[in-house]
Amino acid sequence: MIDVLLGLQWGDEGKGKIVDYLADKYDVIARFQGGPNAGHTLYVNGEKVVLHTIPSGVFHSHCLNLIGNGVVIDPVTLQAEMKKIVPLCPDLLSRLYVSQKAHLILPTHRALDAASEAAKGKDKIGSTLKGIGPAYMDKTGRNGLRVGDILSKNFKEKYDKLTQKHIDMLKQYDNVVEWKQWEAPFFEAIEELRKLQIVNGEYWLDMHLKAGKKILAEGAQGSMLDVDFGTYPFVTSSNTIAAGVCNGLGVAPSRIGEVYGITKAYCTRVGGGPFPTELHDETGEALRKAGSEFGATTGRPRRCGWIDLVALRYAVMLSGVTKLIVTKTDVLDQFTPIKAAVAYIADGIETEEFPYDVTDDASLTPVYKAFPGWDTPIAGISDYDQLPQVFKDYCSFVEEYLGTKIAYISNGTGRNQLIVIS
Ligand code: GDP
Ligand code: IMO
Ligand code: MG
Predict the structure, then answer these.
(1) 148 phi and psi, to 5 degrees?
(2) How many angstroms is it from 288 CA to the middle of ligand 3?
(3) Closest Cα partner for 394 from 381, 413, 409?
(4) With pLDDT > 90 as the criterion, what percentage of the chain qualifies?
(5) Is the CB of 12 under 6 A from ligand 1?
(6) Domain 263-420 in CATH: superfamily?
(7) Is pTM beyond 0.85 here?
(8) In CA terms, which of 30, 106, 161, 238 is 20 to 30 Å from 5?
(9) pLDDT of 221-239, one tens digit each?
(10) 403 pLDDT above the threshold of 80
């Protein structure tokens, strides 16, 4: 069976930390979508590491790591990432595998991302500008270049053809970034990519599954950024929900086992787009400070607000979450009251269903339930029974509302700052 771990909000729920913790129990960790827009933070011997394309199981010497076909790869950022972590992970090359069907992000994809965002003006998505959207557009538009192509003799020819197409597209924009300078590093990184273990990912996984190996699929972004079900068009360009695992790795739905869904005890979003429970006041500012809420990939301040149980229940439904993980609970230590959105008033009508159009936050008012704060540090607690009663009451309410049990509570950045419930 292949278990899945994914974010239930707008990303940055703490997936990196939890995968790093769970990796002990798995033989293979596989990324199934997204690309260098992701920033997964974990700590290795006290040192902070941010992974973008490489699966978060690399720091466990028994774990093999696959970058699946659903991922879009920028060879330059992948190289930079590998270089950074090799000192901490000397056997990286022997445990890293790349699907031949993963698509490549070209320098012109990044230029198109920047030009398209700039042209959107105030409606911009707040993309990480890593070339994600344009690369996935070429994938579904059937023009993309895949990792397997770099092994063919006419790769440069294919590259030139696609780049020329992009040059023509870029002509419609006013301020185009100088992307030519990115070509030489791109081709150098392609040479390095050629040296990696490039595999037929779906057969590779099938082989491991048949051998009884335990596999964990690691999601990037979050359910509310899913291209189909997120707050469209303020989303990323891939399927971030559990369904994305099947086409992002080439595994059948019948082989999916547990689905771990991660949520922060509050909520954040980075970039543009609707965020019904966003706090524009000093409480929002205090959450950002207490949670160090700054983007792991772009350094941008993250928007902060209360946990949104309406959006969460939607995400739990979409992915069939079997095990809930609540992170950053320690961040709420000093807050009272603590609030949770349990419904919205949309166009004057109360609803618990996530609405079709949330692009205009003004027409949507969250209905909150307030909980007393616990006003005591919980970061050092490792046993559920030792948690303050008000905290446990809050957890019980969340479980009941979502119809899913909490399996782990994270109360600090460290790998072992985790309360295991089931
Ligand atoms: P990801 O993209 O889902 O992997 O999450 P990020 O790494 O972008 O952001 C999560 C941030 O929260 C990182 O800086 C983590 O080190 C940190 N973090 C994760 N879990 C906890 C926790 O339980 N408590 C606190 N205080 N920080 C945490
Ligand atoms: P992890 O895996 C948070 C957001 C961007 C932007 C939108 C589209 O670390 O949770 P894109 O670059 O995909 O075109 O950006 O999605 N976004 C993320 N927000 N965490 C992420 O990944 C994100 N990846 C993309 O900020 O709003
Ligand atoms: Mg992140």
Answers:
(1) -55, -30
(2) 15
(3) 409
(4) 94
(5) yes
(6) Adenylosuccinate Synthetase, subunit A, domain 3 (3.90.170.10)
(7) yes
(8) 106
(9) 999 999 999 999 999 999 9
(10) yes
In this structure, the dihedral spanned by the alpha carbons of residues 410, 320, 207 and 86, taken in order and rounded to 10 degrees, is: -30
**Ramachandran region of residue 328, left (φ > 0), alpha (ψ -120 to 50) or beta?**
left
What residue owns the CA closest to ligand 1's atom 27?
A: 413
* pLDDT-derived band at 410, boundaries 50, 70, 90: very high
For residue 56, the ligand 1 atom closest to its alpha carbon is: 4
Cβ(225)–Cβ(132) below 8 Å: no
CA distances from 389 to 1, 316, 339, 384, 402 (A): 37, 25, 16, 10, 20
Give catalytic residue positions: 12, 40
pLDDT at 362: 67
Residue 357: is its pLDDT beyond 90? Answer: no
Q: Is the pLDDT of residue 359 over 80?
A: no
pLDDT tens by residue, 155-186:
999 999 999 999 999 999 998 999 999 999 99
> Does ligand 1 come within 6 angstroms of the Cβ of 110?
no
Q: Which residues line ligand 2 (CB under 6 A)?
A: 7, 10-12, 34, 37-40, 125-128, 130, 132-133, 220-222, 225, 236, 270-272, 296
Q: Does ligand 1 have an atom closer than 6 angstroms to the CB of 37? A: no
Q: Which CATH architecture has domain 2-102+198-259?
A: 3-Layer(aba) Sandwich (3.40)
Instruction: Delimit the domains of the chain by residue range.
Output: 2-102+198-259, 103-192, 263-420
Q: Is 102 exposed, middle or buried (0-12, 13-18, 19+ CB in 10 A)?
A: buried
| Residues with C-beta atoms within 5 A of ion ligand 3 | 12, 39, 296
Name the residue of 413, 415, 418 to mutate for ligand 1: max ligand atoms within 8 A of Cβ.
413
| Pocket mutation for ligand 1, best pick of 41, 260, 307 (most atoms within 8 Å of C-beta) | 41
